[in-house]
Design a protein that fits this description.
The protein is an alpha/beta fold and about 240 residues long. The chain folds into two domains: about 1-155, SPOUT methyltransferase, trefoil knot domain (Alpha/beta knot); about 165-230, tRNA(m1g37)methyltransferase, domain 2 (Trp Operon Repressor, Chain A, Orthogonal Bundle), CATH 1.10.1270. Helices cover about 35% and strands about 20% of the residues. It is built from seven helices and ten strands. It has helices at about 20-25, 65-70, 95-105, 140-155, 160-165, 200-215, 220-230; strands spanning about 1-5, 30-35, 50, 60, 80-90, 105-110, 115, 125-130, 185, 190. The chain is elongated and about 70 Å long.
Length: about 240
């Protein structure tokens, strides 16, 4: 997977993309990240990347030409999508990570700033992606989230595939609680079943915890899970 980031602030990604599982994945070339600064494609002596909005209004708008030139300077892989990080886009979720991971080899991610970008940039954008129903100071934050979520699913990034399969949202439910040593701390004990060695009972307990947690913390997900469970039940004969 190749990620191309179009950003006015390349330094934003320096540390996050070089540490942890992400850094190891890029070092092993499981995925690659390439950063392009639209400012490098300006043609005026001040390297101006923003301007006032036609029609007036507060705030500055990112100019069209540098962004388009930055995108057009990139190599084009056969399975490519150009994404714009925007609160108006589709919300990021696990299903989106999976779709982008399987269907594309190159993601070009445009990070916005200021009041917004010239709307004509949408002519080269395939879809808009959102972190949620709120506005941030920059598009780099949701872009990093997108890169992290997709990279984590690529084979070889996470040591044990089983840990991904047990993720929250993997089967429509939240993850079960986890414990480690010591068995007791300040009177807080690890549930006895986890130390019983009975793997069948442990699996049953964990599944029940997933159900209870999802119903309590995310009743919307629990309702959706129940509906899907009903759909997948074999018909009565």
């Amino acid at each position: 997977m190749r990620f191309d980031i179009i950003t006015l602030f390349p330094e934003f990604f320096t540390s996050p993309l070089s540490c942890g599982l992400r850094g190891k994945a890029f070092a092993k070339e499981i995925a690659s990240v390439h950063i392009t600064n639209p400012r490098d494609f300006t043609i005026d002596r001040h390297h101006k990347v923003d301007d006032e909005s036609y029609g007036g209004g507060v705030g500055m708008v990112m100019k069209l030409e540098p962004i388009v030139a930055a995108v057009e300077s990139l190599p084009v892989l056969p399975r490519r999508q150009v994404l714009f990080m925007s609160p108006q886009g589709k919300k990021i979720d696990r299903a989106l990570f999976e779709e982008l991971r399987y269907n594309y080899d190159q993601l070009v991610i445009i990070c916005g700033h200021y009041e917004g970008i010239d709307e004509r940039v949408m002519n080269i954008v395939d879809r808009e992606i959102s972190l949620g129903d709120f506005v941030l100071t920059c598009g780099e934050i949701p872009a990093l989230t997108l890169i992290d979520g997709i990279t984590r699913l690529l084979p070889g990034t996470v040591g044990k595939v089983e840990s991904i399969k047990a993720d929250s949202f993997e089967d429509g439910l939240l993850d079960y609680p986890h414990y480690t040593r010591p068995a007791e701390f300040r009177g807080w004990r690890v549930p006895d079943v986890l130390m019983s060695g009975n793997h069948a009972k442990i699996a049953q307990w964990r599944h029940q915890q997933q159900l209870d947690r999802t119903q309590t913390k995310r009743p919307d997900l629990y309702t959706k899970w129940l509906e899907n469970s009903e759909i997948q039940k074999p018909p009565l004969t």
